[in-house]
Write a structure and sequence with these properties.
It is built from eight helices and twelve strands. By secondary structure, it is an alpha/beta fold. Strands 6, 7, 8, 9, 10, 11 and 12 form a seven-stranded mixed sheet that branches. It comes from Hwanghaeella grinnelliae.
């Protein structure tokens, strides 16, 4: 297996439109109505990663706690210090970090009374991510603070997801070697490949489906292709056919994958391939896949490597082959 992993430039093909992304949720906590009004105006055009923001507003720390309980996915908090008490804002920071244990939310302290909460002491004693005086936060500076905080929040979530996926892949590897037939193994590999794709990377109706339009196959000599397992729209494929007999766009993507790229992602379709021998390649094809991060690609590649090893082990164990395609429902 000496292929080089190359990520191709996508072929332009009409596919499902990219779904609108959910907005970033931010919570503004301040007892001054004017601050809320100014913040709404200053951030009215804010956008990051094609996502707008959704502003939630609280006028006391007590009200903020209720909103936080109802919205655990708040990305960022713009927080005043002095509200119903001189330390209401700092008490809320303690509640968020130490009581409900939310360490991912970015907290930016905005104060109009720096004497009540000196910057050096607050940053040293409280887990906040930025400290600003209200008088210095122009529209431009507020937007800069927003970009910095939300990018940090985004990257923290991505790191946590990658860790979860890697742990799942470790468990998956052991389970691959327990399958008794090629079709059963292929169906399991497809299911695991689909779970590695975040809902955000699905397109159109695929966002709501747990079963993808996908198949796994062996490509042998003379470009004959044996379908081992298939789901969705691919469920009607013949178990033994040739690449040329497949729909033109699908045939084209598979040909590119075989000739150039072990992982080929065109618009709306993903083909992951691994060479097992000179005349045998395994591949998984999944429809409805949007943008992929580099980590997603690497994890899918690792899954494919492990799957091919499991097929090789099955072959060496002389387990009885099955010519029946597994139809995944």
């Amino acid at each position: 297996m000496t292929d080089t992993l190359i990520f191709a430039s996508p072929i332009m093909r009409t596919g499902p439109e990219k779904p609108a992304s959910d907005p970033w949720k931010i919570l503004v906590v301040d007892d001054e109505p004017d601050i809320h009004a100014i913040t709404k105006i200053a951030l009215s055009d804010f956008e990051l990663d094609d996502r707008r923001i959704s502003q939630l507003h609280a006028y006391s720390a007590k009200e903020a706690r209720s909103i936080l309980e109802e919205n655990p996915d708040i990305a960022m908090l713009l927080l005043d210090v002095v509200m119903e008490s001189d330390g209401a804002g700092l008490d809320l920071v303690h509640y968020i970090r130490n009581v409900i244990g939310n360490t991912t939310m970015r907290i930016v302290l905005r104060t109009g009374n720096p004497g009540h909460a000196p910057e050096r002491r607050v940053i040293a004693e409280y887990d906040i991510n930025d400290y600003r005086e209200k008088s210095e936060l122009t529209t431009q500076k507020l937007n800069t603070v927003m970009y910095t905080a939300l990018r940090s929040y985004r990257d923290i979530l991505a790191t946590e997801k990658d860790k979860e996926k890697l742990e799942k892949l470790v468990d998956t590897t052991a389970n691959l070697f327990t399958k008794r037939t090629p079709g059963e193994l292929a169906a399991y590999a497809i299911a695991q490949a689909c779970t590695l794709l975040d809902p955000a990377s699905r397109q159109g109706e695929q966002q709501e489906k747990s079963t993808e339009n996908a198949f796994m196959a062996i490509v042998g000599e003379d470009q004959r292709i044996s379908i081992l397992a298939a789901s969705g729209s691919f469920g009607s494929l013949e178990s033994d056919t040739t690449i040329d007999d497949l729909p033109d766009d699908l045939s084209e993507d598979i040909q590119v994958s075989l000739a150039q790229d072990r992982l080929y992602h065109s618009e709306g379709r993903l083909v992951v391939r691994m060479q097992a021998s000179e005349n045998r390649n395994y591949l998984i094809c999944i429809e409805g896949v949007g943008e992929l991060r580099d980590m997603d690609k690497r994890l899918l590649d690792m899954l494919m490597r492990n799957s091919v090893m499991a097929f090789d082990t099955m072959e060496k164990a002389n387990l009885p082959p099955s010519a029946d395609i597994v139809r995944i429902h």
